[in-house]
């Protein structure tokens, strides 16, 4: 019987580089964002807020990273994963910190889950593009 197991986690260096790359992408496309990186348990590793980004989006960015890192798939995929079950839609959407719209992506390295990145402050598509820039900057696997 194993008593302890080794788990992969995103390093602070990679988390910092991912948040910076996401913000740099936001600058290029002319939006202001909040970006968070968490480990797979949802614990915050790095966070950046651009001046002028919506303060209400701070918690949303944190929760997108928490959701994507904890479940291991993009937050935009939640509704398709649930299917047509109204009970599932209501049940999951009522869970604290669970985000069911785009902007949160898992951080995987060689297929192994290491955390999540969450971006909030622009449209879902722009948030996700910024998150993808963060993943690309650290060489993480790109979610489909």
Could you spell the SSE succession in H and E letters? HEEHHHEEH
Widest sheet, order of strands: 2-1-4-3
- Estimated radius of gyration: 15 Å
How much of the residues is beta strand, in percent?
15-25%
Q: How many strands, what sense, and barrel or not for the largest sheet?
A: 4 strands, antiparallel
The separation of the N and C termini measures: 36 Å
Could you name the key traits of this structure?
four-stranded antiparallel sheet, alpha+beta, 144 residues, single chain, 5 helices
Structural commentary:
- The protein has 144 residues and is α+β, with helices and mostly antiparallel strands.
- 42% of the residues lie in helices and 19% in strands.
- The protein has 5 helices and 4 strands, in the order αββαααββα.
- The chain has helices at residues 12-29, 57-71, 78-82, 86-93, 124-138; strands at residues 34-39, 44-49, 104-109, 112-120.
- Strands 2-1-4-3 form a 4-stranded antiparallel beta sheet.
- Helix 1 packs across helix 5.
- The longest helix has 18 residues, at 12-29.
């Amino acid at each position: 019987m194993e008593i302890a197991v080794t788990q992969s986690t995103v390093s602070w260096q990679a988390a910092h580089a991912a948040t910076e790359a996401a913000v740099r992408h936001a600058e290029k496309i002319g939006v202001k964002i909040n970006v968070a990186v968490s480990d797979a348990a949802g614990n915050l590793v790095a966070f950046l807020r651009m001046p002028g980004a919506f303060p209400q989006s701070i918690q949303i960015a944190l929760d997108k990273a928490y959701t994507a890192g904890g479940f291991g798939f993009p937050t935009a995929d939640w509704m398709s994963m649930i299917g047509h079950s109204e009970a599932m839609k209501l049940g999951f959407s009522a869970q604290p910190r669970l985000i069911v719209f785009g902007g949160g992506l898992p951080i995987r390295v060689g297929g192994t889950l290491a955390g999540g990145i969450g971006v909030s402050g622009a449209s879902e598509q722009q948030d996700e593009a910024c998150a993808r820039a963060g993943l690309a900057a650290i060489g993480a696997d790109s979610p489909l």
